[in-house]
Design goal:
Blueprint: E1 10-14, H1 18-30, E2 34-38, H2 41-50, E3 55-59, H3 67-76, E4 85-89, H4 94-102, E5 107-110, H5 115-158, H6 167-172, H7 185-195, H8 200-207, H9 211-225, H10 230-239
Parallel strand pairs: 1-2, 1-3, 3-4, 4-5
C-alpha cells in the first residue's frame, strides 16, 4: 500500500446513494481530503486499479456485490489488503458488525451518519496507518544497515589477522584520546537516531535543530570516518566502538 507521510490523503467512498456520496464528499473535501466517490463495487475496483486510496468508506447494502463481498475481495488481494475499510450501514445488529470486522474492516459507522463521528474515526485510522508506514520505513532502513554490518563482520571474520586495514579503520586510529576519532555529542545524537531509522527531518524534530544542521553533523561524521554514505559511517562507528548498535 502506498501511504502518504505528507500531502493530501485520498478517501474512496463507495455508496449507491447519490445523496450520501454528495454529503460525504462535501464533508471530507472541507477537511482537505481528496475524495473519490463511486456508486458500486465495480466502480470501486476500477478506481483502485487506477490509483490506490488511503482509506475506504464502504456502504454495506448495495445492488449487485454488497459491501461485505467487496471488502472480502479487497482483503484477499495483496495490493489492496492493507487499505483500512470503514463500513457504513443502517444495519446495527451485532452479527452484522461482527461479520464486517471479521472480513477485515477496521471500524463501523451507523447511518444516518454524524459529521463529527465520521471525521473522528477517519482521523484515528489514518493516524494509525501513518504510524505503521513510519515504522515500516524505519525497519527497512534498519534492515539495510544491519545487512551492511553483517557484510563487514563476515569479511572481518573471513580474513582474521591477514586483512588489510581499511581507510576508515586507519582514520579512526589517527587522533583523539585512546587513538580513535572523536565524535561530538551532537554527531553521536544524529547517528543514534539514524540507527533507529529516523530520516533527516525526523532527526531534526527530535533534537530541536534544523534539518540543514543535521546534514552538517552527518557530513562531518562521514568526513571523519571517510565513509561514502551515512549508512557506511554508521556501520564504521559501531565497528570501531564509537557507539552502540540500536538494533538487534
Amino acid at each position: 500500500m502506498r501511504m502518504r507521510l505528507s500531502g493530501v490523503e485520498e478517501i474512496l467512498v463507495v455508496d449507491d446513494s447519490p445523496d450520501d456520496l454528495r454529503f460525504l464528499s462535501q464533508l471530507l473535501q472541507a477537511e482537505n481530503y481528496q475524495v473519490r466517490p463511486v456508486l458500486s463495487a465495480s466502480e470501486a475496483f476500477a478506481a483502485l486499479d487506477n490509483q490506490l486510496a488511503d482509506l475506504i468508506l464502504l456502504d454495506i447494502k448495495m445492488p449487485g456485490m454488497d459491501g461485505f463481498e467487496l471488502c472480502r475481495q479487497l482483503k484477499a488481494n495483496e495490493r489492496t489488503a492493507d487499505i483500512p475499510v470503514i463500513y457504513m450501514s443502517a444495519l446495527s445488529e451485532t452479527e452484522d458488525v461482527v461479520r464486517g470486522l471479521q472480513l477485515g474492516a477496521v471500524d463501523y459507522l451507523v447511518k444516518p451518519l454524524k459529521s463529527a463521528e465520521v471525521l473522528a474515526r477517519i482521523a484515528v485510522h489514518l493516524e494509525i496507518c501513518r504510524g505503521y508506514s513510519e515504522l515500516e520505513l524505519r525497519n527497512k532502513s534498519l534492515r539495510r544497515i544491519n545487512k551492511q554490518l553483517e557484510g563487514i563482520i563476515d569479511n572481518f571474520d573471513g580474513a582474521k589477522g591477514n586483512a588489510p586495514v581499511s581507510k576508515a579503520a586507519r582514520k579512526t586510529k589517527k587522533s583523539g584520546a585512546g587513538g580513535t576519532v572523536k565524535l561530538t555529542a551532537r554527531e553521536l545524537d544524529c547517528l543514534s537516531l539514524l540507527a533507529q531509522g529516523y530520516r533527516t527531518v525526523q532527526i531534526a524534530d527530535q533534537l530541536n535543530i534544523k534539518p540543514v544542521t543535521v546534514e552538517f553533523h552527518l557530513a562531518n561524521v562521514r568526513n571523519k570516518l571517510e565513509a561514502k554514505t551515512r549508512e557506511q559511517a554508521l556501520v564504521t562507528a559501531i565497528m570501531q566502538g564509537l557507539m552502540e548498535p540500536a538494533f538487534h
